[in-house]
Amino acid sequence: MPQSLYAKWMYAWETALTTRDTNRIVRPLEWGFDWLEDFSPLAAESANGGGFERMTAINADIVRRADEFFSYRTPEDFRLERRHPELFPTNVRPETLAQDAELKRQAETGELDEAEFLRFTSAVRTRYPENDTVNARWYPAPPEKQRGKPKQAIVVMPQWNADAFSHNALCTLFNRFGISALRLSKPYHDIRRPSELERSDYAVSANIGRTTEACRQAVVDVRSCLDWLQHQGYEQFGVLGTSLGSCYAFIAAAFDARLRVCAFNHASTWFGDVVWQGQSTRHIRAAFEEAGLTQDQVREIFAIVSPMSYMQRFAANPKRALVVHATYDLTFPLEFSLDVLKNFDSLGIDYVSKVLPCGHYTTGETPYKFLDGWYLGSFVYKAFKELARKA
Predict the structure, then answer these.
(1) pLDDT tens for residues 331-370?
(2) Parallel, antiparallel, or unpaired: how do β-strands 152-157 and 115-121 relate?
(3) For the chain, which end, N or C, has fewer CB atoms within 10 Å of the first or last residue's CB respectively?
(4) Its pTM surpasses 0.90
(5) Which domains does the chain have, with CATH numbers?
(6) What is the 8-class DSSP label of residue 189?
(7) What does DSSP say about strands 179-184 and 133-139: parallel, antiparallel, or unpaired?
(8) Per residue in 253-275, is it b (16+ CB within 10 Å) or e — as a string?
């Protein structure tokens, strides 16, 4: 059947949005065994050589021992800091740079209010000190909104390459419901981004070990945030993630039973399939193709960071989940999102499915961003309300 005019228009718009940034870099394939050698004996044994077979063996080993891989010690240096919010743009478009300059001007002149940020040292250490200091903007709900119910909080993680203002509006919305929010900067994002990068490339790249370790760090950082929230007297917890943030949120919820409300804004089963077929990761696929890898092989070498590897674990503890997907998504292709729903059905997971009539990047455009916000906001409100009722 020929594509409708709407579908053609949407695909063209989506493609235009995914190709407007000119600072994506094709970096060569690196297995990155050294990033995993602190945990995996297979990664630490240099005599094993390199290559696909060794990386797939490491993936199989770590997935089997995933409880240990995503375990951690609670950080001891939690602190709240006040500072002026900064944008930390990930593109060089003129309008973005102008927005960044205006925010800096407002900070200098006192027109921009300071905000409060939770900071602590990540329990997972990398080679980048700036990345290892976790950053989460703190949105405490007004006390009068929290009266008469358990204290509730949600951890919010935006998409890959999000600037530091992305999803802040959702946090203020949750505050109106009496739900506090921590807007978490993912590894290698905004203030955690190493100075040599324009984009958050180290979070997802053709370096397999580093990409895997970034996911490990993100999951542990979410769990550490829950520890801090519990220490503040919070009792009920949720997590919301968009795109890459959705992947991190799913794995965190699979390994932490405290997360009872889960909102996945774009979702997929296999990390490697998204890398291979998604428009926004074309530059990473190019590196894999140059190295002679296939889609099936890329799926295998990213098994550790794939929600599909932990689907049964996710289903093991009671929770309420939302899955939002987009009909014309060229970054998380529709078939992969539908596969999530198929697996949720087969495992009896309590979930709600919502569909956006747009694509991945167009989710952030008018009018679709308002529809997406309604889906996310109404779900979080109702799910936490039900959780409080059952307490």
Answers:
(1) 999 999 999 999 999 999 999 999 999 999 999 999 999 9
(2) unpaired
(3) N
(4) yes
(5) 5-390 (3.40.50.1820)
(6) S
(7) antiparallel
(8) bbbbebbbbbbbbbbbbbbbbbb
